[in-house]
UniProtKB/TrEMBL annotation:
Gene Ontology, cellular component aspect: plasma membrane
Keywords on record: Cell membrane, Membrane, Transmembrane, Transmembrane helix
Localization in the cell: Cell membrane
Protein name, UniProt field: Branched-chain amino acid ABC transporter permease
GO MF terms held by the record: branched-chain amino acid transmembrane transporter activity
Top-level taxon: Bacteria
InterPro entries with a match to the protein in the record: ABC_transp_permease, LivM-like
Membrane topology listed for this record: Multi-pass membrane protein
Entry keyword Membrane: yes
Family matches, as PANTHER family: ABC TRANSPORTER PERMEASE PROTEIN (PTHR30482:SF5), HIGH-AFFINITY BRANCHED-CHAIN AMINO ACID TRANSPORT SYSTEM PERMEASE (PTHR30482)
Keyword field contains Membrane: yes
A Pfam family it matches: BPD_transp_2
Organism: Leucobacter weissii
């Protein structure tokens, strides 16, 4: 072959290589694009409290609080391949644990930061107590077994009145650090002329907690524990042959996921300010599972997006319904915000399972691949 022919063949190969470096491979955006996108999202989220009203800040705080639990569940279901319907139970343990540990009068009166860590640790211990079951069964059997925890939890929440407040629930002590309230308005604070009250501060607390949860989850998935869990999910016999302690990793995944759920419970309690047993029933467990299915099993970013969609949609629809009257009032038996949201989520899950089982995360990768080919 002549030097001219070799040179002509090298030109498109070089161009293809340069294009690959700019656009990434395997349907994923290159690292620099993801870094810039992450930075842009963080800056946007940090600036939003300067512009959003109190209601929208509440919606955002609740969504980010729930997203912490969804991140933990996507590691358990997606990465480790273990079905759990007990996420609401562990969230309740964290929420009520914090409320009792931090309460100055009808609790232990611990510092809020210590009480929050203790609530998360208590949820992890509850997961550890259930981990022998998680280590020995899998699939539908584990899902049914974990579902029992939700009913046990409901019974305990309604009957351990000195700790939980019973059916009527209990209030949640505000969160402060050295006297600076992160869920209240003391001391007064203004940023760029905007008063930073309880909702603005709660936004930043939830955002910071979600960022920590995301980095912890991605660190676990990207390193040896995550690779071991993936192998256990795909082939337990092969994992055992390679010297991986299958039962240990399955149990550990359940404990870690329980801790994330406990963190979500603490944040949810702080965001709501009051806890009742019905907040942590079967509906919440199913909602968590819907979040990770919509986002894409095993995808941390997808779990966050799924959590925001599932949490924010009924709240926004309720606000829309109250201002327009197009939807029925809650509890009227008609098509209220909760009913319409449930229908939408059901349709979305079915469509994604049929068309894109990888959820929104895989759909995003596919769209990026199409865009990179056409550019």
């Amino acid at each position: 072959m002549s030097e001219k022919a070799v040179s002509e063949n090298a030109v498109p190969e070089k161009a293809a290589a340069e294009k690959s470096n700019w656009l990434g491979r395997a349907g994923r955006a290159p690292r620099w694009v993801r870094a810039l996108a992450l930075l842009a999202v963080l800056l946007l989220l940090a600036a939003l409290p300067l512009y959003l009203d109190a209601q929208m800040l509440k919606v955002g705080s609740w969504s980010m609080a729930i997203a912490v639990g969804a991140v933990g569940l996507t590691m358990l279901v997606g990465t480790a391949g273990q079905l759990s319907l007990a996420h609401a139970f562990f969230a309740a343990v964290g929420a009520y644990g914090y409320a009792y540990f931090a309460a100055p009068e009808d609790g232990l009166g611990w510092p809020p930061a210590l009480a929050a860590l203790a609530g998360i640790a208590l949820a992890a211990l509850a997961g550890l107590a259930f981990s022998p079951v998680a280590a020995r069964v899998r699939g539908l059997y584990l899902g049914v077994a974990s579902l029992g925890l939700v009913f046990v939890g409901q019974h305990l929440l309604k009957n351990l009145t000195p700790v939980t407040g019973g059916v009527n629930g209990r209030s949640v002590a505000p969160f402060d650090v050295f006297g600076f309230q992160l869920t209240g308005g003391t001391p007064p604070l203004e940023v760029l002329g905007v008063p930073f009250g309880a909702q603005e501060r709660m936004w930043y607390l939830a955002l910071f907690s979600l960022i920590v949860a995301i980095f912890l989850a991605r660190g676990i998935i990207a390193r040896r524990p995550g690779r071991a869990l993936t192998l256990v999910r795909d082939n337990q016999a092969a994992a055992s042959a390679l010297g991986i302690n299958v039962q240990h990793y399955k149990a550990s995944a359940f404990v870690i996921s329980s801790a994330f759920a406990g963190g979500a419970g603490v944040l949810t309690g702080l965001a709501y300010g009051y806890l009742t047993p019905q907040n942590f029933g079967l509906t919440l467990s199913i909602s968590f599972l819907v979040m990770v299915l919509i986002g894409g099993l095993g995808s941390v970013g997808g779990a966050v997006v799924g959590a925001v969609i599932v949490t924010a949609t009924p709240l926004l629809l309720e606000s829309f319904a109250s201002s327009t009257g197009l939807l029925a009032a809650g509890g009227s038996g008609g098509y209220d915000a909760a009913t319409v949201s449930s229908i939408l989520f059901g349709v979305l899950v079915v469509v994604l399972i049929i068309l894109e089982p990888g959820g929104l995360a895989r759909l995003g990768q596919r769209l990026w691949r199409v865009a990179s080919r056409s550019s």
